[in-house]
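Q: Joint fold for the lines below.
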Amino acid sequence: MHLFNELTNYQQPTEEGYYGQYGGAYIPEMLYSNVETLKNQYLQIMDDPAFKAEVAALLKDYVGRPTPLFYAERLSAEIGAKIYLKREDLCHTGAHKINNTVGQIILAQRLGKKKIIAETGAGQHGVATATVCALKGMECVVYMGEKDIERQAPNVARMKMLGATVVPAKSGSKTLKDATNEAIRAWINEPDTTHYIIGSVVGPHPYPDMVARFQSVISAEMRTQLKAVTGSALPTHVVACVGGGSNAAGAFYHYLNEPTVELVAVEAAGHGVHSGMSAATTQLGSTGILHGSKSIVMQTKDGQVVEPHSISAGLDYPGIGPLHAFLYASKRGTFMSATDEAALQWAFHLSEIEGIIPALETAHAFAVLPEMNLKLTDVVIVCLSGRGDKDLATYMQAMDMK
Amino acid sequence: MSRLSELFEQKNKRVLNVYCTAGYPHLNSTMEVMESLQKNGADIIELGMPYSDPLADGEVIQNSSLIALNNGMTIDALFEQLEKMRPSIHIPVVLMGYMNPILQYGLEDFCKKAKSVGVDGLILPDLPLFEFEQVYGATIKSNDLDFIFLVTPETPETRLRKLDSLSSGFLYAVSSSATTGTDKDFTKVAMYLERLKSMQLKNPFLVGFGIKDKASFDAVNVFANGAIIGSAYIQALSKEKDVETTTKTFLEGVLSN
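A: Joint structure:
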């Protein structure tokens, strides 16, 4: 398809939200007015100095930014490269998700919305949304797959404590995909008063671009911090895990147009890419439409969306954001994958050698380091997207089995 | 002239379009349901092609889609079932579905096959205006299929006129912004329908979402050319009596004077 402009600047989709052939806004007419308003206003609002100042102040004093860039000495020695960790796990609420919700809640206020809805997989985005809703006194409803509610009990409790209503998504595979369907349906039913805070770089345009911009604070800080310690803002590699791809989009953003920086996206292979129990979308998927955008989607030959599998609820998603689909198709990004087992092993390993217990999602990013053929002179930043408290039950189970 | 245009030429009041999910309640129910609908007074049949992630649909149609998929319904299986529908089914038949399964099938092949079995038009709620004009619309039109856009109370007038101009057959007026199967406040709906009527659109318009019985059917027909019933009929079918009895009772209820 040649109808949509080839991108020369990876940071800027076309006016209609296309990154190459991926993106767009494949939404029912019932959502048109809402999405159109957002599309017409998000850049203007985000460029407004008063808006920027309000977001920056909250990111600093409430979220705790800038998050440190930490040189992981023992890990570096073991892998044979200089490895830095971008400590998003130290953000308030324990993951990078709050970078986006802080921005979107203020944007929702500017749009005059009274109620917030969100979907969540692992619960990190749900908690980050419930948190900013409590902060701003907004009503909050979070849709979460019934299966995820079971495996992420601590985050469900946190959302409730923060005053949010958690609604179980009971359709389909009862995970993130279905929670997203339910959130979109809820938005269709109440479009006037409600803003939908999507947690990843997925959904109809302008969400993928808007969420990437709110998360781009991660790589903006990386540049400054790396320059301060090494003299150069550019690492050789940036590594991040990808479900929908929000932390990866944030970690890659200010390096997208720097061709010397290799961008490594790590998908969840589940029991193995070809085991039938996997969430490695770029390896198993094909072009399709899911949740309002055209991207790479895991589906049957009949175009029914497949139920994925990953041990980590946050990566258990059969799609990927359109920016990432374009990075994959254009070969700008390097796509790798890690199994459930490797992720678990690395969650323990990172805890033991660096004293950091990562989220299961994040552990996937570390699991590919030994396979990257790194040199001693390579400078690698791994986006440590979240901490592992929410996964303790899984970790405890793994320890019992040892 | 298309079957839909012919229908509206002969009848422009109280036109009843009934939705049912293909392959529901059983894989081979499709033809039986269609024959029953035609016999008992439906003017148009809207066949839903089941999809795993039907965003615009409420719980009732979602469940029927899931059952149909589990029954083994696919686009190929549906075309096979429809191959012999003409001429015994003589009323217009439109297919409703989502873009993803059609893209996997191939839009060109899909349109050709649909036309060849006697399908008259398409309703694809997640195919928006921009993409229709830029990419997909030409294929649909060149295969001589009517395309029916949805409009809502929030659709601005210039856009509404554009959607009307690109539609043929009829225009699908969503009663209010909501998923299917949601209850509606009909006084608000009436104001919107009155406005639609006064716009003197190119196409006749049928009201859908929230039409479930005689009262709601009569209410929207004050302004509209007719209405679309979906979830309420699916719910009636789910009671598992025989299709003919269920359909007869249901449509008699809606159409009684």
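Q: Anything notable?
A: Chain B has a mean pLDDT of 94. The first helix of chain B runs from residue 3 to 10.
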